Amino acid sequence: MSRQRTMEAILASEFVTIGELARLTATRYSTLKFYTEEGMLPFEQAEENLTRRYRREETVERISRIKQLRSEGMSVPEIKSKLMEE
Q1: Distance separating alpha carbons of residues 37 and 28, to the nearest angstrom
Q2: Which PANTHER family match (predicted)?
Q3: For the chain, what is the mean pLDDT?
């Protein structure tokens, strides 16, 4: 089992894992996985170990935007449509 990176290391990194995103954004892992599967969170996949890597700054901003739209009462399909417009 791998050791968790420190928050300092995460904040200095260009790419983060979904677990690190959960820590950064106080969002459940399962919620982030759902958003990823719905195409709402772009990622890159390293072929050698199939780990999904997310660009930290852009993805944290995207999650914040999704949370804002959810708080306004938008559904997931509506949010997906809105994100594609932006």
Answers
A1: 14
A2: MERR-FAMILY TRANSCRIPTIONAL REGULATOR, REDOX-CYCLING DRUG-SENSING TRANSCRIPTIONAL ACTIVATOR SOXR
A3: 92
